[in-house]
Write a structure and sequence with these properties.
Length: 228
Amino acid sequence: MAFDRNIKIAPSILASDFANFGAECEAAEAQGADWIHVDVMDGHFVPNITFGPSTCAAIRKHIQGVMDVHLMISPVDPYIEAFADAGADVLTAHVEAGPHIHRTLQAIRGAGMRAGVALNPGTPASAIEHVLDLIDLVCVMTVNPGFGGQKYIPMEDKVRTLRSMIGDREVHIEIDGGVDPTTAPGLSAAGADVLVAGSAVFKGGSVSNPGPYGDNIAAIRSAAESAI
Ligand code: DX5
Ligand code: ZN
């Protein structure tokens, strides 16, 4: 996983067919996805439940590139090894998920994964000021986590602040929630390089008709790239 700041589109399988994750991941990659974003929810940290490490392990076999696992769970630490065993490349924990984010990020890297930290819309950039050397990615939530298809909450100021805090560090800035061709340009201009998109990628297509996935990914990418 070499570092770069090129725009990467990461379809969130939360918006895909839950009975067909393997084929959905293969279709998304064939249609131009750079990363595959996998949302794990526990019904406790967020008001929705998706799936856990065993499903991630099953999905892994159908992803050739980066499996980007977003944990919306609390606690995180007891499950880090299980997600490493499942083959996560990036494992992202929320800074709000517990009192010991520093320890959690050390443990994620210690388990051989890239470490990500996610910030809810109400959490300031300064919350991660003292862990910048422990992370490979910061995920800026532009919706309150828990569900796909929500309305975008503007966070360009937070993205600009993070971009300047990060400086020369090899840390990706990822955006999650309400990303589409209309919201992508302001985000890429502010310094984001990984754009997660669920509804905006999977709408209009299916495993048997994946062409719309490709059109949707291309539209988000070109909107984002045009603003840089
Ligand atoms: C929200 C999830 C997102 C979600 C984004 O809690 O973390 O990854 O799938 O969905 P859209 O792109 O539809 O807003
Ligand atoms: Zn997510």
